[in-house]
Each structure stands twice: as C-alpha cells, then as structure tokens.
Amino acid sequence: xxxxxxxxxxxxxxxxxxxxxxxxxxxxxxxxxxxxxxxxxxxxxxxxxxxxxxxxxxxxxxxxxxxxxxxxxxxxxxxxxxxxxxxxxxxxxxxxxxxxxxxxxxxxxxxxxxxxxxxxxxxxxxxxxxxxxxxxxxxxxxxxxxxxxxxxxxxxxxxxxxxxxxxxxxxxxxxxxxxxxxxxxxxxxxxxxxxxxxxxxxxxxxxxxxxxxxxxxxxxxxxxxxxx
Amino acid sequence: xxxxxxxxxxxxxxxxxxxxxxxxxxxxxxxxxxxxxxxxxxxxxxxxxxxxxxxxxxxxxxxxxxxxxxxxxxxxxxxxxxxxxxxxxxxxxxxxxxxxxxxxxxxxxxxxxxxxxxxxxxxxxxxxxxxxxxxxxxxxxxxxxxxxxxxxxxxxxxxxxxxxxxxxxxxxxxxxxxxxxxxxxxxxxxxxxxxxxxxxxxxxxxxxxxxxxxxxxxxxxxxxxxxxxxxxxxxxxxxxxxxxxxxxxxxxxxxxxxxxxxxxxxxxxxxxxxxxxxxxxxxxxxxxxxxxx
Lengths: 228, 293
Fold this sequence. Notes:
Chain B: This is Hydrogenase MvhADGHdrABC CoB-CoM heterodisulfide reductase subunit B. Chain B: GO terms for molecular function: iron-sulfur cluster binding; oxidoreductase activity. Chain B: Keywords: Iron, Iron-sulfur, Metal-binding, Oxidoreductase. The complex is a heterodimer. Chain A has 3 domains: 9-82, Ubiquitin-like (UB roll) (Roll), CATH 3.10.20; 95-184, Fumarate Reductase Iron-sulfur Protein, Chain B, domain 2; 194-221, no CATH class. In chain A, 36% of the residues lie in helices and 11% in strands. Chain A is built from 10 helices and 5 strands. Chain A has helices spanning 27-33, 104-108, 120-124, 131-139, 143-149, 158-162, 169-184, 189-199, 204-212, 215-223, and strands spanning 9-14, 17-22, 53-57, 65-68, 78-82. In chain A, helix 4 packs antiparallel against helix 5 (143-149), helix 4 (131-139) packs across helix 7 and helix 5 crosses helix 7. Chain B is α/β, with parallel strands linked by helices. Chain B folds into 2 domains: 2-126, Glutathione S-transferase Yfyf (Class Pi), Chain A, domain 2 (Up-down Bundle), CATH 1.20.1050; 143-289, 3-Layer(aba) Sandwich (Rossmann fold). Helix content of chain B is 47%, strand content 10%. At the A-B interface, helix 4 of A face helix 2 of B.
C-alpha cells in the first residue's frame, strides 16, 4: 500500500532486525507496522503518559538517543528498542507524616546524595527537563524549585535507566511536587469547594441516571451534547 | 566590584546564617557576591584516586558556570564561603592546571557544556576581605568595635590543607586573626586552630568528634575566649553539637558559643544592629560590660 501511495520507505532495525517502514510513521506505529502488538509500553499515544520510552541510535552516530515512541518519527538507519517498564525504587510514604524540612526528600530517597552531576539524566529526558538541576535542588532541600523544574515529567523512567548513581529521578520529582502541592503552593480553594459540593451528593442523581442508560442511549446523548 | 559566588548546598540549608551575614558584610564593604544562576553540589570531598574522573564532574560544572559568569562580570574569580567547597573546587581546578590531559578528557565527556579553559581562580571569602578589600578599609568601616571581645579564630583543616591550596600559613595562620584585630577584638592564640574538628566522623563515629572538639575547646576556654569563630559550616556544626554532649557528660564546665566569622563581621560593621544582636546576647552582654557598645 505504501508503494502505491509512493511514500518512501526507510530502513529501521527493531531489536536488530531490519524492517522497511513508510517514512513519517511514529516509532510506535512503525513497530506495529512491522508486526509487533503492544500489550505493555503503550498508553495515551499522545505524549502524556510516558509509557513508551524508547532508546535508539542513528547510523554512524555514537550518541545513544531517547524518545517517546508515540512522539518521534522513524529515520533511515535507526536502531531502536522500546523499554516497556522501568524497575524503579518507589518509596511508600504517608503524606500526612512528611514535612518540608531541608532533608525531607533526602530522607525518602537518600541515594540523591550520590549524584555526581554527570547530566546524563538531563541529556536523556524526552521532555527536555533539567533533570540534574531538579535532583540538585532536591539535594539542597529546595522543594519548590524541584517541583517547578520537574513539573512536565511524564514518568517515562529513562533518567533512572541512565543514572550512574542509580537515582530514580522521576520518583524524587514526584515527591517534590506532592510536597510542594501540600505545603508550599497556595491552596486551590475552588477545588476544595468543588470536592465539598460533590460530597454533598449533588451530582449523584445525574450519575445514577447515566448509569441506568444502555450503550445506544449514551451514544445518542453524546451526539446531542452541546459543543463549545 | 562584583564577584561570581558559589554558595554550596550547606549554606542553603544548615548554614543559612553564614550566607545571610556574608552577603550583608559584602554590601557593607562595598562589593557584591553574585550567586551563579545554576550550580550543582561541589562533590563534597576531593577524590584522591587519580583516575576516577566522574567524581570531579560536579566541581568542573561549577567552574564552567563561573567561566560563563566571569565573562559577563569581566573577572576570572569565583568566591566561596564554605571551606569544604573551597577545598574541593580549588583542588579540582589545580588538578586540571597540572594535568591538561585530564582537562581535555573531561571536556570531551561534557559535550553539552562549553569547554572549561582552566583559568578560574577559586577564592575564599576571607581572601577577598584580606587581599582585595584590605585591613585598612575594614578598620575604617567598623561601626561597632568589638572592644575587648576575646575571640578564638578556628580554621579547621579545609582552608589550609593540602599545602598546595592553602592561602594562609599552614601551621600558624594569621588572616582571620588580623581581620578580627581590625574589628577591635582581642585575638586568642589557640594552638588547636588548625586541628581537625572530626569532620564527617560525626555520622559514623561521634565519639571521635567529641575527642577532637574537647581538645579544641579546652584550650580555647583556658585562654578565656568569649566566642569561637569559624568560616566552616561543618566545624561550626561539630563544635556546637559536640560541646552540648560534652557538657551533658560533664567533660566541659560550660559551652562556648561558636559562630561564623561573617556573623561577627556583620555585628562589627553595622551600627543599627540592636535587632540583629538579639540573637547574640552573649556578645551584647560582653560588649556592654566592657564599654564596646
């Protein structure tokens, strides 16, 4: 089909095996085109969930590159493998018992003190975050800065794979954002109001009505919805 | 005059007082410490293993930041406040001066940064005061002379060891004493001034720190010091916390306050410091008794 539409084909090596793939496809689509079927390692397909961390090299380039498979298109001579899962040390903590002392993050993740500032994490981040800088901010107890710098993290886990100090940066950043939300950032009063309103049962009637509908009735309702 | 300035992690956490005071002192003496816009940990300890370059990355990155800011401020200097950071940065810098091949290697590795050219000069705050500002100017700027306050300047190890990075006489340092004399204080000569406070042993072997501190404090107290000053956050921490334990154990009769040199400088250089002095009642009392205030 690709030939018929005259879309040029490129050579892509998936886990070492060569496939001819129509150019313009994302890495994820390319893998599916080659016959792979995702059971893990694919989520939103829109760059938000971080499930499709991929590493690749290009022909004649020593650089090991990284990307989200759903956000990057194939290039000729690409060698790639997708990482369906990151085995990472994620601490269980009780937010009610935590604080924002200067060593709050260090206590949960003492390995951040092993950071040697090699910057591998920043170089690998598909979200182009300053990962090393937020680890360093965490190290010196600057929770707000760590939260702001890590805000766009999609938890793909590539930083943890590359870290020679075996830090799980993305979990540290997540804790920093949680602490920042709970203790530092101004409270979102409108959210609290909305939650209180839900708790009064005001939405219950609507939801039970929806629950009682069958599929075609819901479809009808969806088609008739007002669009802004 | 503006100096690129590297604070280090401790001055942002447990050593905040040192930074606050030093920034104020700089202002009072007519210069500014401009914090590097981004910086990483210095590496904490200079790794003596000659072929492990990874441990020097942190310090090198800071040297590059200083190089960038230096271009803007037209200086090749980088000022530190923490003795530990001073030691690590200066040793790494010196290692590159003596081993250009290592500088070449690390520049190859750090391919997202501009090359470090090896020209940065690491200065401790004390050096700026002593060499760039000078005792005469400091003397002129004193507003609250520390009249007859008996001060024991404690150096610790990190500013003076190894010899290659020392900016003062290694066995008989005088820079801190000279500055304190300029403030009107009586400087006590404590032979333990360059002895170790126990440093990071505080994490694994507290007893060792108690031993070290007891020796330092015993002589200081026998010479009648009112206060011990130090430029090092770790020394300040060890000397303060160990004295608490020693006092509880009955090994010393009283605890001598240990503050940063910058704090005492700030007291001497400002006139409207009633509020600030609230935190330093022991000094206020002593000064009032001796007619200093």
